[in-house]
Specification:
Blueprint: E1 11-14, E2 31-35, E3 38-40, H1 49-55, H2 59-62, H3 71-74
Antiparallel strand pairs: 1-2, 2-3
Bound molecules: zinc ion.
C-alpha cells in the first residue's frame, strides 16, 4: 500500500469565559498550541489537569478535515468539566 500524505492542522486552544465565573486556575485568554502531537505552552506555564484531560481526546479529530456538517467542525467550545466553573 502506497503512503499517501495528509495534513494536520496546528491548533490554538484558548480559555474563554462563559456566562458563569471561572473557579479553576485557567484564566481567560490562557492558551497553548498543538503542533503535530506536541503541546506548546507559551503563556502561563501552568494549566489545570482536569480541563486538559477533558479536551485532549478531541484534539486529534480537530486537527483533521471533517465534514462541514459534522459537529466536530462546527462546535469550537468545550465546557470545563468542573460543574461549578464557567470556563470553556
Ligand atoms: Zn474550569
Amino acid at each position: 500500500m502506497a503512503e499517501r500524505p495528509f495534513e494536520l492542522y496546528d491548533l490554538k486552544v484558548e480559555v474563554v469565559a462563559g456566562d458563569r465565573p471561572m473557579i479553576c486556575n485557567h484564566p481567560e485568554g490562557a492558551y497553548f498550541m498543538v503542533e503535530g502531537e506536541t503541546l506548546v505552552f507559551s503563556g502561563p506555564d501552568r494549566f489545570p489537569m482536569f480541563p486538559l484531560a477533558a479536551i485532549l481526546p478531541l484534539l486529534p479529530a480537530k486537527q483533521r478535515v471533517t465534514d462541514e456538517n459534522d459537529w466536530m467542525t462546527t462546535d469550537t467550545e468545550v465546557a470545563c468539566p468542573d460543574p461549578h466553573c464557567g470556563g470553556c
